[in-house]
Amino acid sequence: MIQNGPYNEKVMDHFRNPRNVGVLENPDGVGTAGNPVCGDIMEISIQVEDDVIKDVRFRTFGCGAAIATSSMVTELVKNKTIDEALAVSNRAVAKALGGLPPIKMHCSVLAEEALRSAIDDFRRRQGKP
Amino acid sequence: MDTKPIYLDHAATTPVAPEVIQAMLPFLEGAYGNASSLHSFGQEAKAAVEAARTRIASFMGARPEEIVFTSGGTESDNFIIKGIALSRRDRGNHLITSSIEHHAVLETCDFLRKQGVSVTLLPVDSNGLVDPDDVRKAITDKTILISIMHGNNEIGTIEPIAEIGSIAREHGVAFHTDAVQTFGHIPIDVDELKVDFLSASAHKLHGPKGVGLAYIRKGMKITPLLHGGDQEKRRRASTLNVPGIVGFGRAVELADASMHTESSRQSALRDRLIKGLLSSIGDTRLNGHPVRRLPNNANLSFAFVEGEGLLLSLDMEGIAVSTGSACTSSSLEPSHVLKAIGVPVELAHGSLRFTLGRDTTREDIDRVLQVMPGIVHRLRAMSPLVRKGAVS
């Protein structure tokens, strides 16, 4: 009787049990994407050691897909180098979740943007362009 | 899920009553005649349709010949608004409606606007009420129809239809109300409401989907939407949906018998739900009129969280509700109704609509009150909009 609505089991798992929720105490970079007027806002903070993302956290205001894509992107970039993290595309996030309804693909774009924004912030703090 | 599912989305649709199914079955089985046929099969179907028509007409203080059966609320709205725009185009080309109408009205008016009809969209106050004085001021010598809904499907506000009806009569302008959410839920008398046209739909009152009605006051000329056969006194061609109409008739009979006790029972449960949610969850607001609202409607906004997340979380608990959040609409725009009553966009995204029904119990409401604080808390804990310490 009770279906998972528009989402597959993997998306629902990340919605129910999101990974890496929260804010890092002393982040090396913080980025946000979206805005509350559109109904989605994501914030990602990263801790970087020797060019590797050692820790990552997210907070998201948004629908089930927005929460699941935020959770998945943190999983995909944890313990990856900055270059590897930058190579994670929105499609890769959606694919890792086993697919998203077409109307929800913008949520995966937001996850990619929030991550890039956090990396940009990290690089700014490092004095790199 | 070991607990029983709790359905709180009766404004979307209602379960078909077992009595309605029983009434319909003979017309899906042996009594399959076409109500337009002269032989006994046809006459049997016709008699059943006319019995339903008489029953429904008397329920709303109308005459049987003033009822045209349609495929539902959307068709009735389209039929009446387009039909009047066409039949009265010699007399004018101006429509008045409100900014919180159902899309079946708003999109129809928008379609007509593109055909050169001018449309005035009246604002509403923060409770969702249309000011009858605004209606009066908007009337011009070109106005051919005023269309204001009876009860709003999202926020439950009940509009001052009789007052607007008086104004329409003073000015000789035809008046339509979309009563899809009120029909079978609160008393409706077309003379007391002073309406010339009314739309209703069976599946909102435990009837079947795919059948509704357009009330057309005697003497009102209207151009049909569907052309073809002679059905419905040439106002709507198409073979009559006999099982659907019979089911609609039975659903109205059941509503007539239970409406008064149900509206007070549901109002009490509704208020229990509203008070319980407002007191147990901070940064929460009620949307719609506190008193002039549908007996079964509670619409609230929960700050800092998004409606779809709330909806999915409730669904995981076996509780079905709906949201005005953008995330569940294909347009990604939040509800036009919440926008019209001035709910800030962020709060509109965090809105939930609970709509009760005949099957809703006090235990159901208490279960919602039991799980909601935890659900909101969990989502707020992961929301970047929550300032540190803003929410406990």
From TrEMBL, chain A:
Show where the NIF system FeS cluster assembly NifU N-terminal domain sits.
Answer: 7-127
Please provide an example of a Pfam family that matches this protein in its UniProt record. NifU_N
Under InterPro entries, the record lists: NIF_FeS_clus_asmbl_NifU-like, NIF_FeS_clus_asmbl_NifU_N
Which SUPFAM superfamilies does the entry mention? SufE/NifU
**Record's NCBIfam families?**
NifU_clost
What name does the UniProt record give this protein?
Answer: Scaffold protein
GO MF terms listed in the record are: iron ion binding; iron-sulfur cluster binding
- Name any Gene Ontology BP term: iron-sulfur cluster assembly
User: What does the organism's lineage look like at the top?
Assistant: unclassified sequences, metagenomes, ecological metagenomes
